[in-house]
Amino acid sequence: MNPLEIKRYPDDVLRRECSLVDRITEKERMLFEKMVSTMRYFSGIGLAAPQIGISRKLIVVDVDEGLIKLANPVVFKTKGLGRMDEKCLSVPDVVVNVERPEEIIVSGLNEKGRAVEFLAKGLLARVLQHEIDHLNGTLIIDYLTLQGKVRRGKGGAR
Ligand code: ZN
Questions:
Q1: Straight-line distance from the first to the last Cα atom of the chain, in angstroms, rounded to the nearest whole number
Q2: What is the pLDDT of residues 23-66, one digit of tens each?
Q3: Per the confidence metrics, is the pTM higher than 0.90?
Q4: Rounded distance, CA 44 to CA 156, Å?
């Protein structure tokens, strides 16, 4: 499967609130597959639908703890706070040190359309939150403050 084009800042689609997914059908499963192959092609560890120009609440994440495909993901419980450098395929060559909860409980629909909920920690929790931000039109550059650091870097983009 050929990779899809990655939308880049300041594309409007990256700033929209995505719409909820009513039902997981073959169409959504195909979309998940395209998102996964695009994420892998660009060596990403996560991808959200708006990054390929689709304004719907769908994300894929793979941090070597098993591939996750989620529709309508919501973080409903958090614990701790930590900082980590983040990159984004839609904001190339920018690294932002972002503070986020270290542990989260996430709910959503899996690719079979079943409601799921699970605990995520560390890198997995971080990438899930990064992708969920995309569904709300939030980008890593929004975490920049006057004291924030921006550096150029490569690899590990999502
Ligand atoms: Zn991103």
A1: 19
A2: 999 999 999 999 999 999 999 999 999 999 999 999 999 999 99
A3: yes
A4: 6
Q: What is the dihedral of CA 151, 6, 127, 144, to 10 degrees?
A: 40
Residue 34, C-beta contacts closer than 8 angstroms, at least 6 positions apart: 1, 4, 52
The pLDDT score that the predictor gives to residue 156 is 66
How far away, in angstroms, is 87 Cα from ligand 1 center?
7
CB contact set of 52 (below 8 Å; sequence gap of 6+)? 4, 5, 6, 7, 34, 35, 38
For residue 56, how far is the Cα from the chain centroid?
12
Cα(96) to ligand 1 centroid in Å equals 11
